[in-house]
Amino acid sequence: MNLLNITFTKKKLQCIIMEQIYSIGKQIMHARLKKKLSQAELANKCNLNVRTIQRIENEDVNPRLYTIRIISEALGITLIDENEVENESKQLMQLRYMFEKRKQIRIFTFAFAIFLLAAAFILLLSGIPKLIWAPFFYILFFLDLIVIGLIWRCPGCNGLLGEVFSVKYCSKCGLKFFE
Prior knowledge:
Blueprint: H1 2-20, H2 24-34, H3 39-46, H4 50-57, H5 65-75, H6 82-126, H7 130-151
Helix pairs in contact: 2-5, 3-4, 3-5, 6-7
């Protein structure tokens, strides 16, 4: 009778543990605590923001497949099925394509800004009154800056990217833009 009671208690305990670590966020938190890592240490290993780890563990967001893969590799656990790996590679290809398109648009907008500066300098030297051409150039500069600000975002999470020319990955979602 006592042995049956212990078995029942073990099963109940296993159910409670599975409920606690059922979600991906809870599984990540459990594995992180098991490895005795802080959120900051895990974020540093994954090249992610600490806030991203916090949001995932608190289940405030649904992380993307590539973010889950990065975290699972850092923790040495399996969170992604074999079926999801193919979906992840398709998703990565789409996001990298979007990044390349945005990069081309960004290069064009920078070139356009340089062209506007050169044209404004030539008009300034030519002696044409600023009242005639300056408002037009101010509007074009403003629109150019808006386009740059809208384009310089991660295609995965839409977060602002840091460095302008040498960005390799997004610190919010972990998306690597190059292999």
